[in-house]
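Exercise 3.2. Students should predict the tertiary structure of the chain below and write it as structure tokens, then compare their answer with the key that follows.

Predict this chain's 3D structure.
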Amino acid sequence: MESGKTGIPFIDAHMRQLNQTGYMSNRGRVNCASYFVRDLNIDWTWGAAYFESRLIDYDVSSNWMNWHMQAFEIYYTNPVHQSLKYKANDFIAKWIPELKRIDDDRIHAPWLFPELLAETNYPEPIEVYNKWNRSIKRIKDSVLLND
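Answer key:
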């Protein structure tokens, strides 16, 4: 997780940014916390402690409340949907150099395209969840329209 190699580009780009700069946007913090707690079932206190050790703008209240809220109170955020919604193509390309040459929506879910994944040296996802299917279909449809 901390190395930015989950196989989910939106998450990995944020984690790599955090590890290299000590910074992560609020959107990244919320999405990473949601993914780690709700998808990977990582103890939220571990995530909060890890972010505490990395963030240069660390604030105890904001950090621990964000993680607590993601664990117990706030709705789930789908990282594939969020990546598409916020048009994170350039952000992903910047922080994940192995995906930099992908210039369309395949960058959000490269595991859908085995030939592409083989060329990138980017890991396959730890797991792909059914709750991502609608967003995955949007990526497939987008690629088909552009071919």
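Discussion points: Residues 1-147 form a domain with the DNA Cyclobutane Dipyrimidine Photolyase, subunit A; domain 3 fold (CATH 1.10.579.10). The first helix runs from residue 9 to 21.
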